[in-house]
Design a protein that fits this description.
heterotrimer; A alpha+beta (about 100); B alpha/beta (about 300); C alpha/beta (about 550); B: 7-stranded mixed sheet; C: about 550 residues; alpha/beta; Glutaconate Coenzyme A-transferase; 8-stranded mixed sheet; 19 helices; about 30% helix; MadA (chain C)
């Protein structure tokens, strides 16, 4: 497995009060995204574990785009990747942020 | 603008639990934030999942407290590994200890190949867990209607449940279609003939021959309603139940042993047009099945 | 004195030679190979059917079993290279030269054989183009065709899969060639006559139906959220503003998703009756919910689809059907309809370059063209106006006075920025160019040329190439919807915002679509079973698509 870490300055802090959100599933072409809170409201930390080696540039681009466009400050995100395409990764990250903003089910 | 029916087949493990239990009643045990992942998969350079492919916890159905487990059929085909198995075993032991009913949403291809020994042991422990809980008066209700079906050790565990609720899409068997074809040849079993596979292992056939007890639409609300009803039945497991089921299975092999296709069995059950069965809608089928099916509640 | 009837004389010779192995028109099945060796001559131009769906499979086997010492160097002119036998005859030397359109399942082997020099390639055509050449310089001397049944006179019934047969027979029979038909059975009375018996010289009773492949069945269960998002954008960003009523869809999942969103998302947008009413389209099972919801007025089909026969027969107001009730398809006419009478073609591709050329050729596969380049091209001979055609023309050329301005067909490429195996949809250089260099071809096999492409839709947005005023804008418009591919990451962000202000690029949010709202509950059918139920049980899906 290749493990990648990103710690990115986040222009917008995440909303809501929920402690944790989980979206997606580890399957071929899919991924799971576990979103938790951290102590740094202006940072977003992302850790990726992927079986597809050698795509650091792509993950960097997806992660930076995500943090720039969504309210991701103060989040700690862990990803288990089953070989998802970048558009799927973006979608799951956005779903994760939306879910943690929702009230507790 | 959207379909109101929520498909059980399409839902994930967490969505199934959310649909089964009363709103806001579910509390997960050993949730994904605990990161209790498989210790074996990384050796094979395979990705792990934070819940190891099973969600377990407690909740309420119609106000009655229950334990709930749901396998995630999309992660490694819902296969049972060491952690996955331990979570279910623990849940069943707790159920016996506190005398609380258990609902298991199966979605599994059986034991995870990469952790075969641990997985096989887990299957045995889970079966023991089901039987011991049931002997103590706990109901264990199994729900089957997911992508992976209920195969291998999953099929054995399902056989031990109090009640099995199945939809048309749900398949129940021990040996899977590809394995049968590999070992016995394509003439014996053509695994790519999907309507044949479902005719042989799918929910309708299992219902008709007493391999499952309640047939429902592929709808999360239908699974919930049937689960409530199953939890209202008297819990029963004793020597008489097993002896009666053994006798039924012996009769069944005598009666249907020569049949080469499920439709032959359906004909022998007295169904006029067996070839119409696969395309029948769920409600019509359930009515017809009530008239003609074999029954094996409590054991099979 | 010149003889003016040498071709007919040659045909008479063939009929006499073949007659030895036939009873009147009925070929003795035990002597099929002897028969074929008797009627064929080395170097003959031969058409075997060979469509993309139905196959004259028994005749193909017969061809492959001939003795290459007797019959060799045939020139095959066929629309589909589909069966292994179609290429076996090149390996054995029975055939030498090939002109074709499509090679789906044989695309990898045909590439190897072309590289290895086993096949002398004439050209890769569109269907309509190859049919046209049947009447000009590629008229078959012998045609081997397939039908459902024949009567004693050689009249043929093709059933719903008429496809190429009338075109092939017309060119061959009236061009003084020999027509041989494989049929599933010989009957006293045909349900309808698709091919008159006086155009058919021999009939082989194959004793079983011809082989036919379900090609257009897309399982809704496999549709992804991204495909649904892309389909929503196409409906809201293209179908609605242009008011597209007459159109053709490709066979991919993206367009199938559009079909399944019409009765849900399209209904919500109030578009029923305003878009997607008239089609040149194969009978896609995914169109059933829209038809049942009253969206569709008429569909003309290139071919049929396995399992759709009863449904088509039960909807004669929508589909073209014969006196027997079953579908009458016709590839040549439907291709013509797609070229001249449709205002939009929308389909998927495997590669798009920075100028907007697209191709389905990858390094090791030559899948051919089929009909897409014909549908996916602006018909320069078109003269009738329609609102979408005029609007597209005005966007492309705002300065020419309206009465002298050509309209434009909407030619839309739709897809996700990364395809199967994470292969990027957008590339610097098409694999088709590398192939052309490798095989020393005059033309690179480009599916849709850049100057015909009007829009590109991906999950990231819609690029309107009609509004681009120079090559630079065009390139940035393409980069602007190329997502995280290398092409997409190479974008000029400042210029992109300018293009967005001019609506050359539209993002989901510009169209009022939240990507997070795209989910499978929006599909009018989420499984093949749902499609069967929507059809009232008339659609009978093949076993491979069932999970019941």
């Amino acid at each position: 497995m290749e493990i990648l870490h990103f710690d990115i300055a986040a222009p917008t802090s995440a909303g809501g009060t929920r402690a944790m959100a989980l979206v997606g599933v580890v399957a071929s072409g899919n991924l799971e995204v576990l979103v938790e809170r951290s102590d740094a409201p202006d940072r977003c930390a992302i850790e990726i574990s992927t079986a597809a080696h050698g795509f650091r540039d792509l993950w960097t681009a997806v992660a930076e785009d995500f943090v720039a466009r969504r309210a991701a400050g103060g989040l700690r995100i862990a990803i288990n990747d089953g070989g998802a395409r970048p558009d799927t990764v973006s979608l799951r990250l956005a779903q994760g942020v939306r879910m943690i903003e929702e009230p507790e089910a | 603008m959207s379909n109101t029916r929520q498909s059980w087949y399409e839902a994930g493990a967490r969505e199934r639990i959310a649909a089964l239990v009363d709103p806001a009643s579910f509390a997960e045990f050993i949730g994904p934030e605990r990161r209790e992942i498989s210790p074996h998969l990384s050796i094979f350079d395979l990705p792990t999942q934070f819940d190891d492919g099973i969600v377990v916890g407690c909740g309420a159905i119609g106000g009655t407290p229950v334990f709930v487990a749901a396998q995630e059929g999309r992660f490694m085909g819902g296969a049972v590994g060491e952690v996955h198995g331990a979570k279910l075993t623990g849940l069943l032991r707790a159920a016996k200890a506190v005398a609380r009913d258990v609902v298991i949403a199966f979605d599994t291809g059986g034991v995870r190949l990469q952790e075969a020994n641990a997985g096989e042991i887990a299957i045995a422990e889970i079966m023991r867990g089901v039987v011991e809980a049931r002997m103590a008066g706990v109901r264990v209700v199994g729900l089957i209607g997911g992508r992976a079906g209920c195969y291998g050790g999953g099929g054995l565990i399902a056989g031990c449940c109090s009640t099995l609720i199945v939809s048309e899409q749900g398949r129940i068997s021990v040996t899977g279609p590809e394995v049968i074809e590999t070992n016995k040849g394509v003439e014996e079993f053509d695994s790519r003939d999907r309507s044949f596979v479902w005719r042989t292992m799918g929910g309708k056939h299992r219902t008709l021959i007493g391999g499952a007890d309640v047939f429902v639409e592929d709808d999360t609300m239908a699974f919930r309603d049937a689960t409530r009803a199953a939890l209202a039945r008297a819990p029963k497991l004793d020597g008489n139940t097993l002896a009666a089921e053994q006798a039924r299975l012996e009769r069944r092999i005598t009666r249907f042993g020569e049949a080469s296709d499920a439709t032959d069995i359906w004909q022998l059950l007295g169904i006029d047009d067996p070839w119409a069965i696969p395309d029948m809608p769920a409600t019509g089928f359930a009515t017809l099945a009530d008239t003609y099916r074999e029954r094996a509640d409590d054991a099979r | 004195m010149r003889q003016w009837n040498t071709r007919k004389a040659l045909r008479e010779e063939r009929i006499a030679a073949g007659g030895v192995f036939a009873n009147a028109k009925a070929i003795d099945p035990k002597h099929l190979v002897d028969f074929l060796e008797a009627v064929l001559r080395p170097g003959d131009r031969v058409c075997i059917e060979g469509d993309n769906q139905k196959q004259a499979d028994v005749l193909a086997r017969g061809l492959a079993d001939m003795d290459p010492a007797r019959i060799h160097d045939l020139h095959m002119v066929q629309s589909g290279v589909v069966l292994p036998e179609h290429l076996d005859i090149f390996d054995s030397g029975i055939a030498k030269r090939l002109d074709f359109s499509y090679s789906g399942p044989q695309s990898a082997r045909i590439a190897r054989m072309l590289f290895g020099g086993k096949i002398e390639l004439g050209a890769i055509h569109t269907y309509l183009e190859l049919f046209a050449r049947y009447f000009v310089d590629l008229t078959p001397q012998v045609a081997l065709i397939a039908a459902v049944s024949a009567d004693r006179h050689g009249n043929l019934y093709t059933g719903p899969n008429t496809e190429d047969t009338p075109t092939v027979v017309e060119a061959t029979s009236f061009g003084s060639g020999l027509v041989i038909a494989q049929v599933g059975e010989i009957v006293d009375t045909l349900p309808r006559v698709d091919i008159p018996g006086d155009q058919v010289h021999f009939v082989l009773d194959a004793g079983r139906p011809f082989y036919v492949e379900p090609l257009f069945t897309r399982d809704p269960a496999a549709m992804t959220e991204t495909q649904i998002l892309t389909a929503m954008m196409a409906i809201k960003g293209l179908y609605e503003p242009y008011g597209v009523r007459r159109l053709n869809h490709g066979i991919g999942f993206n367009t199938a998703a559009i079909e399944l969103l019409l009765p849900t998302y399209g209904e919500k947008l109030g578009l029923k009756g305003k878009i997607c009413t008239h089609w040149a389209l194969n009978p896609h099972p995914t169109l059933i919910p829209a038809i049942e919801a009253g969206w569709v007025e008429q569909v003309h089909c290139f071919g049929s689809e396995v399992g759709m026969e009863d449904y088509l027969a039960a909807r004669p107001d929508i589909f073209f059907t014969g006196p027997d009730g079953s579908l009458r398809s016709n590839r040549a006419f439907s291709q013509t309809a797609g070229l001249y009478a449709c205002d939009m073609f929308i389909g998927s591709t495997l590669q798009i370059d920075l100028s907007g050329h697209s191709s389905t050729i990858t390094a090791n596969r030559i899948a051919g063209f089929g009909g897409a380049p014909n549908m996916g091209s602006d018909a320069r001979g078109r003269r009738h106006p329609s609102a979408p055609w005029l609007q597209a023309g005005a966007e492309a050329d705002p300065d020419t006075p309206a009465p002298l301005r050509r309209g434009r067909k909407l030619v839309v490429q739709i897809g996700e920025t990364f395809g199967e195996g994470n292969a990027p949809l957008f590339v610097e250089k098409l694999s088709a160019l590398e192939l052309a260099e490798k095989l020393d071809l005059d033309l690179a096999p480009v599916m849709v040329y850049a100057d015909d492409t009007t829009h590109i839709v991906t999950e990231e947005g819609i690029a309107n190439l009609l509004l681009c005023r120079n090559a630079d804008e065009r390139e940035q418009a393409i980069r602007g919807v190329a997502g995280f591919t290398e092409i997409g990451r190479g974008r000029d962000k400042t210029m992109l915002e300018r293009l967005r202000a001019r609506k050359i690029i539209q993002r989901p949010e510009d169209l009022g679509i939240d990507p997070l709202d795209a989910n499978r509950n929006m599909l009018a059918a989420r499984s093949i079973k749902d499609l069967m139920l929507a059809s009232g049980g008339l659609y009978r899906p093949p076993s491979r698509f069932r999970n019941w």
